[in-house]
Amino acid sequence: MSNNIELRNTANTELTYAKSIINLILDSGFIDNENTLNTLAVALLSVIRAHESLIKINLGK
User: How far is CA 38 from CA 23, 34, 35, 59, in A?
Assistant: First the structure.
């Protein structure tokens, strides 16, 4: 049970990071450069890590 709470908190944190990164890019107005693509890649990795945490919860790990 405690592990599921920790995994859920990890997922929420990663999704918060991703949302913040995406909002920062959208607010800046700079979308057509390599730095933006790298930053979006970091956001995507955060979403993937969140998804992995949720999978572990669903599998009961």
Answer: 15, 6, 5, 32
Residue spans of the domains in the chain: they are: 2-59
Question: What is the pLDDT tens value at each position of the chain, 61 positions in all?
Answer: 678 899 999 999 999 999 998 888 888 877 677 888 888 899 999 999 999 999 998 887 5
Residues 40 and 25 sit within 8 Å (Cβ to Cβ): yes
Q: What is the pTM of this model?
A: 0.76
Distance CA 37, CA 5 (A): 32
